Amino acid sequence: MDTTQDNVSTRLARYLGYKQITKAAFETSAGIARGSLNGIGDAPHRGTIAKIRKTAPDLNIGWLLSGKGDMLLSDNATPDSTPGQIEVNTSQQSPDLDGAPDRITALIQYLKEQGLVHGQGHFADLIGYSRATLSQIKNSHARTPLALLLSVSETFPAISLDWLLYGTGDMIKETDISTHSSRQSEADTLQDIKCLLTDIKALLTQLVEQRPESPIPGKSRANGRGSNLEN
């Protein structure tokens, strides 16, 4: 699929076209200023997102913001239980994309300490972005794409989206701290097993090297007969 022009504005237009609603009519229904949706950009205000979500309850906000997942929520899904659906704070504030590089640096350090990533390159691979792109964002403090932060949220669901986007609250969701602790425990156990296997391998190698060479069956008897014949 050609995603050259795929952004929040075009995805919203796609949804409105599917529902056969004009932008003007939707803005009026949602209580959004006329013409505001024309320049919504890729970092819309949380208040605008909240109004869109309230007016279009079947619209997947995760898809609207990132282009990932389905455009519409399933019939039996609720916004809080649908995969890819993102909980959005309703206060009037735009995402702090300029401060995101510092948060990404702190996140990578945390994930390294938890044994979930090996480093910056591994982190970039996991979220689906090139290592060069991530390095440029971190080193030059370039404006971080909203889609990158959303990809981080999808890859590491225990990380608070409010913290990622706005720098508010704690990095880790309270309900997921135990999950991270469990993952760390599993990682430590795996590391202990690897070390144990390495020690066992070294011990076996040492035993094989120290073991006296066994005589080849029949060799001694053959040598004895040969000596008798010579005599």
CATH class annotation of the largest domain: Mainly Alpha
Oligomer: single chain
Number of domains: 2
| Helix/strand order | HHHHHHHHHHH
Residue-averaged pLDDT, rounded?
A: 75
Q: What is the overall shape? A: elongated
The helix-and-strand class reads mainly alpha
Question: What would you say this structure looks like, in words?
Answer:
The protein is mostly helical. It has two domains: 1-94, 434 Repressor (Amino-terminal Domain) (Orthogonal Bundle), CATH 1.10.260; 95-208, 434 Repressor (Amino-terminal Domain). It has eleven helices and no strands. It has helices at 8-19, 23-30, 46-55, 61-66, 100-113, 120-127, 131-140, 146-155, 161-166, 177-210, 219-230. The longest helix is centred in the C-terminal third of the chain and has 34 residues, at 177-210. Mean pLDDT is 75; it is low at 76-92.
List keywords for this structure.
434 Repressor (Amino-terminal Domain), mainly alpha, elongated
Short account of what is shown:
The protein is built from 11 helices and no strands.
Describe how the helices and strands are arranged.
Blueprint: H1 8-19, H2 23-30, H3 46-55, H4 61-66, H5 100-113, H6 120-127, H7 131-140, H8 146-155, H9 161-166, H10 177-210, H11 219-230
